[in-house]
Amino acid sequence: MPNLTHPPAPLAASPPLITEPPYAAQILTVAAWVLELAATTDLTAAGLDDAMQTANAGIVGHLPAAVAETATRNARAALPPYAAASTRGEYALRLRATARGI
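^ that's the sequence the OP posted. Answer follows.
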């Protein structure tokens, strides 16, 4: 018969299963870093595309194609809209905020 006066000892807390952010969030964070290399320059579609390609190569370039394509698609779907008058630095801040929300 169990001793009912003392509760059983708690099990050790298990560590969280996922400790890294999703690949899409990592892509957006690296793209923000690339954009900040020339923070005062106006943002263009070509500049954003270049930053995204650089981030994709670094984060998911070594992964299987299906994983890389899914992460890239998710990252591009999460891109905040940009105004033609915004700078690369301003957009990098928005990218980082978006990446935190993923």
